[in-house]
Design brief:
heterodimer, A: elongated, B: alpha/beta, Peroxisomal Thiolase, Chain A, domain 1, 2 domains, ten-stranded mixed beta sheet, two-stranded antiparallel ribbon, acyltransferase activity, transferring groups other than amino-acyl groups (chain B), Thiolase-like (chain B), Lipid-transfer protein (chain B), ChsH2_Znr (chain A), Thioester_dehydratase-like (chain A)
């Protein structure tokens, strides 16, 4: 049976990707970030005699390992800037500010950070600034709350630093969160709309005639678009299964439970589903099952036996 | 470098780039582009010797998102396939090297990017130094604005000159049916000063594909192959404060090694999403007004992230295919403020 329906409105749903990245620090990074906690700014000196701030573990030009630390000033000069009229979430200041590259006195390279200023007319390349320290510091780049304008002389001779700190910072946690709006595409949108009507609709490949459930928009074997919609099921056959004995976090299902590949009648490959309504040790290949819909009816919650005789192995062996 | 084996771009296709493609999955976006390059050459999936793609999981918000796009390729029987988690131009480089080795005679290269599901400005902060930069969330426009201000301070450009680059690019895009922004448009207010909205690329979705072929196979598949005479890519330090933001030594070195300075080119497709970056690239490559810059409109007219670089190579090749160019330079970039740059030199058969 073939059902052709007009393209429904694209579905979309929020998708949040969030992770607390946890990173260890090299010896130079550890000293630099610990120094920030102590309101001390350290740079690293290269073999060529350049003082790099922020410091790195290896020379960007020669790849030599760097270890000679020096203390530079908390004052510096703006080398370039850009006025940010609408700060974005997570940025150093919530009010309009300038992004700046600041060459701290005693350093040869520049540090990127925010500059608090009343407006772009107050900012220029060459402006003298100083660090405004955060009230609470933990050993992170955000221990520099921002820079602020500050007239001072440029003279500063970098002083050697032995990098000895009490309680050195050895790692950072950098939380990251990205917000997306996910759209599954035409094929899966049609599939999900049909599911909400308690129908399972796959798509047939015009080349090899295989019916894909769920549809993917393309036949991965032939590399052509699948456009014919084919209603399959609702009944199907268990082609293979496993018994899950480990309870998953946030999954409110008692173990052991059965997770199976189910080839719906008319489908060219099996989909995943949980089997219930039968003791786990009685589930078998060839078992005939039907869907039990979730409370809101938008998808099958699980599959249960239909009571029919088992399917012959020959009828589903190609779908394993 | 001199190459023993001749490899050419013989086909190029791209999607109509749009602000959003909510109605399409990645495979639904990529597949028409793959079919188009197959149609141009008559090749089927089974005729392709090697397949390489470029994309980014962070754009999609899902791990291994490129495996879904493989559905559109027809990976059965099992194909020889590779993937780069960056712009498709670097996938093309990998495919080119593969063909140079003689391991294959043909290659399919494709890439795609859907920026619309997330915030491109936020997503791109995740590629930054995780210790000193990422926690501050400096977005891609802010970083480009720092570079633009450095250029203004150095006397290399000013706001009217940047506006002229934007206007020229979008005017040229009128003849590009795939462009997202074609025709004159206001420069708009400051996004991050000194960059106005007009200085910035559109945010959009898109895909592109090319087919490479070697030697006589290329001549069979394309009337006027775009021979890759040289290609190279170089990277600079990730720390912005260590670099001179008004210059691009990596572009210059890649161009030198690609043979760009041996003879003049008539066309250059530069991957400059921001107007200011065209200034840097022109300077690094020594391009004067005799060279046609971005006749396609460039990334200011359409910037499907992860595909925009591959499109530069495709657009340059297509002009050679059509006989509108004899020798072209194509450039792709990756990373903040032109951190990493790829340069290719393409030539058509001499006329006469």
């Amino acid at each position: 049976m073939t059902a052709v329906t007009p393209p429904p409105e694209a579905l979309r749903a929020p998708l949040v990707v969030e992770f607390p990245f946890t990173r260890s620090l090299g010896p130079v990074q550890s000293a630099f970030l610990t120094g920030l906690r102590e309101r001390t700014v350290l740079g690293v000196r290269t073999e060529a005699g350049e003082v790099l701030v922020p410091p790195v573990e290896y020379d960007p030009a020669t790849a030599a390992e760097l270890r000679e630390l020096v203390e530079v000033a908390a004052t510096g000069t703006v080398t370039t800037w850009a006025w940010n009229p609408e700060p974005r979430p997570g940025q150093p200041l919530a009010t309009p500010f300038a992004w700046v590259l600041v060459r701290l006195d005693g350093a040869d390279t520049a540090l990127l950070h925010a500059l608090d200023a009343p407006g772009p007319e107050a900012v220029r390349t060459g402006l003298r600034v100083r660090i405004r320290w955060a009230a609470e510091r933990s050993g992170a780049i955000t221990d520099i709350a921002c820079f602020e304008p500050y007239e001072s002389t440029e003279a500063h001779e970098p002083a050697p630093h032995d990098r000895e700190f009490e309680n050195p910072v050895t790692g950072i946690v950098a939380p990251a969160r990205l917000d997306y709006t996910y759209s599954p595409g035409r094929a899966q949108t049609r599939y999900l709309h049909a599911l909400a009507e308690r129908r399972t609709v796959g798509e047939r490949c015009p080349s090899c005639a295989k019916v894909y459930v769920p549809p993917r928009g393309a036949c991965p074997t032939c590399g052509v678009a699948t456009t014919d919609q084919v209603e399959v099921g609702p009944r199907g056959t268990v082609t293979t299964f496993c018994i899950v004995n480990i309870k998953a976090k946030n999954l409110d299902i008692e173990v052991p439970y059965v997770y199976a590949h189910i080839a719906l009648d008319g489908a060219g490959l099996a989909l995943h589903g949980r089997i219930a309504g039968i003791p786990y040790d009685e589930v078998r290949m060839g078992l005939r099952v039907e869907p039990v819909w979730s409370e809101d009816g938008r998808y099958p919650d699980h599959y249960r036996p239909t009571g029919e005789p088992d399917a012959d192995y020959d009828t589903y062996k190609e779908l394993l | 470098m001199t190459t023993a084996r001749e490899v050419a771009i013989v086909a190029f296709a791209q999607s109509d780039h749009r602000r959003r493609t909510d109605d399409l999955s990645e495979v639904e976006m990529v597949m028409p582009v793959l079919h188009e390059v197959q149609r141009q050459t008559g090749l089927k999936a089974s005729d392709i010797g090697f397949t390489c793609s470029g994309s980014s999981d962070y754009l999609a918000g899902r791990a291994f998102s490129f495996t879904m796009a493989l559905d559109g390729v027809g990976a059965w029987p099992p194909i020889s396939e590779s993937h780069v988690e960056t712009d498709g131009a670097w996938a093309l480089y990998e495919a080119w090297v593969k063909l140079l080795t003689g391991e294959a005679d043909t290659a399919l290269v494709y890439s795609y990017g859907k920026s619309s599901p997330g915030s491109a400005r936020d997503v791109l902060t995740r590629q930054l130094d995780p210790y000193y930069l990422a926690p501050l969330w400096p977005d891609s426009v802010a970083l480009a604005a720092l570079q633009a201000q450095a250029l203004v301070d150095a006397g290399d450009t000013d706001e009217p000159a940047l506006a002229a680059i934007a206007a020229r690019s979008r005017e040229d895009a009128r003849t590009n049916p795939h462009a997202q922004l074609a025709g004159a448009r206001p420069q708009g207010g400051y996004a991050v000063q000194p960059l106005r909205t007009g200085d910035c690329p559109p945010i959009g979705d898109g895909a592109a594909a090319v087919i490479l072929a070697a030697g006589d196979r290329a001549r069979e598949l394309c009337a006027r192959p775009a021979w890759i005479r040289g290609m190279d890519h170089r990277i600079e330090a990730h720390s912005l404060g260590v670099r001179d933001l008004t210059d691009s030594p990596s572009t210059r070195l890649a161009a030198e090694r690609a043979g760009a300075f041996e003879r003049p080119v008539d066309t250059a497709e530069l991957h400059a999403p921001f107007t200011s970056q065209e200034v840097v690239l022109r300077k690094a490559l020594g391009l004067d007004d005799s060279v046609r810059i971005n006749p396609s409109g460039g990334a200011l007219a359409a910037n499907p992230v992860m595909a925009a670089g591959l499109i530069r190579l495709g657009e340059a090749a297509a002009r050679i295919h059509r006989g509108e160019s004899d020798r072209a330079l194509a450039h792709a970039t990756s990373g903040p403020c032109l951190q990493q740059n790829l340069v290719a030199v393409l030539e058509g058969e001499p006329r006469g």
